[in-house]
Amino acid sequence: MEVPGGNIGKLSICGTVNDLACMGARPRYLSCAFQIEEGFPLAQLEEIAAAMEKTAAEAGVRIVAGDTKVAGRGQVDHVFITTTGIGEVQAGATPAGNRAKPGDAVIVTGDVGRHGCTILLARNEFSIDADVTSDCAPLWGTVKSLLDTIPDRQDLHVIRDATRGGVGTVLYEIAEQSQVGIRLNAADVPVDPAVRGVCGMLGLEPLYLACEGRLVIFAPQSAAQGIVDTLRQGKYSRDAAIIGEVIDQPEAKGKVIITTEIGTQTMLPAPGGELLPRIC
Amino acid sequence: MTNTTEKMNQSLQEARDIITGYRGPKLRIMEVCGTHTHEIFRLGIRQLLPESIELISGPGCPVCVTPTDFIDEAIWLATEKQVTICTFGDLVRVPGTTQNLGEARAAGANVQVVYTPLDAVTYAAEHPSEAVAFLSVGFETTTPAACLAVKRAMAQGLTNFSLLTANKTMDQAYLAMADACDAYLYPGHVCAIAGTALPEQLVHTHGISGVATGFTASELLTALAVIIRKQAAGKPFFVNCYPRVVTHEGSPAAQKLVRTLMEPCDAEWRGLGTIPQSGLQLRADYGQFDARVKYQIPAMHGHGNPACRCGDICRANARRPIARSLAKSAILSTRSVPAWCPMKVPAPHSISMEGISDVHRS
Fold it and tell me: Is there a contact between B344 and A263 if contact means CB atoms under 8 Å apart?
């Protein structure tokens, strides 16, 4: 329900707002459906609603329709919230997963894996204490700043929010959809030291932990530095960085390659299966 | 490339130069530990090696060497005796004869992933109506925690907790695998618990060489460079390249705990067969916590996948193309990783399936 950096209400707005923003669309209207377990505390529901109101206001989106259902005890796990949104595609903006091109820079708007790590810790399954806060944030403002400053909106080839599966999964999806290879520079991927520490203990790869406030952007090298400079002015993208590039090698098509800290090249393991902490 | 090279400190560069510049006779080095294998893969260290240096991935991943019969026993407990299975996450994908634990779970078995054996005790205490068995795999590093779990269950008076043991020790394996390599990269964490008396002794009794090392790029490259330099001197050697963690004595407290609760037994290693006295089982005094005793598990006569080449890989008999042909995906492009070997490969739908993060998602 509640994790450092956000609650389910904030998440429910950010998820849809960010999906719209990634299509180059200004989020306008949301519908919102609640399924609430019988006995769920009203005070908590009010907190969730307050977070939704605040986040929607920040994103400039109006919640115009909704529905509420109360389910019997045990039929719903506390509360489910489903949001759906309508946005207005901005002129000239055509970001899409199949538009990555060789030579593009790969940009992330901040450190990776923080939300997923926060959830892992909040579940308290691992008896690990770490100071990690979710990156959950509404990102229309971030995308708008790019649309407003970039000389040619067409240069925003791809914008994706790295939610489920994290940045690694998004990169594999884009490599597949655009039929290109992607090369990352491990040293340039921003990871919070606490997240890196938790991942080290559990044997997880930060690139595969979910983010809820991070975008992955593909744009021509010529536009990349300007994009990063703009992002670094923004509230939710101060640590934006170029982490890699799209490469023009037929054998790398559909793959994500990493230049490691010692300068060798390895493949980022392809996503798949269940997130399992490793003993080995 | 240039940037990363510049960032490397001088000693790392020196180690790297020694490795890449090696032009001596064929040198086979076995990294015993599964986490070493993982880091060598992740860091792409094999790319630095000249033709004459071969890295062999040894049997030091407790998950990888867990035999088919053990998984069959766990699934039997879960399905025939309705025992809740608590397990380390990466064991879920290890194949039994017909199923792995993940598939058994999908078919209705209660399989809980835990991070430590103590979590399994907590689970048992919180679910008194369930019989709970923890799948106790692991080497010197993990076994003490399993013993602690038994002690805690005993102290709490729990009668619904037991261990299904497949614990192993490395000492017999060092001897069994000695012919497969010229020097060991000894497992750093095992040495941290067990100490270095045995590797030191093996130098004199069996002429077995090796270094104990850690898991960072710098530690791994330094260890390889030390092996190259020491090997050139022509005498068996042991060097502790991980002194910040490894001592001669190891952890006497952990060693005593294990000795108190467990005793050596013969153990089967997936792909390698039975190595005498290389396993650990609970002593008879703790029989009420031994799942095999408690549930009278019948002897399993399972069949491993005939395509499995784990043993060949550990013995360095498999060559890259063979392993590649087994690999289900292109990521497994070095022969260090068995086809099914659990790796750091989290999922696109991982956290989201149950987490609050994606409750709002379709």
Answer: no
Asked if residues A204 and A277 have their Cβ atoms less than 8 Å apart, the reply is yes
Q: Are the Cβ atoms of B35 and A208 closer than 8 angstroms?
A: no
| Exposed / middle / buried, residue A69 (Cβ in 10 Å: 0-12, 13-18, 19+) | exposed
How is residue B243 written in tokens?
A: 């002194």
What is the DSSP code string of B160-183?
SEEEEEEEE-SHHHHHHTGGG-SE
Which CATH number does the domain housing residue B132 bear? 3.40.50.11740
The count of CB pairs under 8 A between chains A and B is 191
Does B266 reside within a domain?
A: yes
Domain count of the fold of chain B: 1
CB contact under 8 A, A273 and B35: no
Predicted confidence pLDDT, tens digits, chain B (362 residues): 455 555 557 888 899 999 999 999 999 999 998 889 989 998 999 999 999 999 998 888 888 888 999 999 999 999 999 999 999 988 998 889 999 999 999 999 999 999 889 999 999 999 999 999 999 999 999 999 999 999 999 999 999 999 999 999 999 989 988 888 999 999 999 999 999 999 999 999 999 999 999 998 999 999 999 999 999 999 999 999 999 999 999 999 999 999 999 999 999 988 788 999 999 999 999 999 999 999 999 999 888 777 777 767 666 665 443 333 333 332 333 333 333 333 333 332 222 222 223 322 22
Tell me the shortest Cα–Cα distance from A121 to chain B, in angstroms.
12
Q: Please state the domain extents for chain A.
A: 2-89, 104-267
Q: How many other C-beta atoms are found inside a 10 Å radius of the C-beta of residue B141?
A: 23
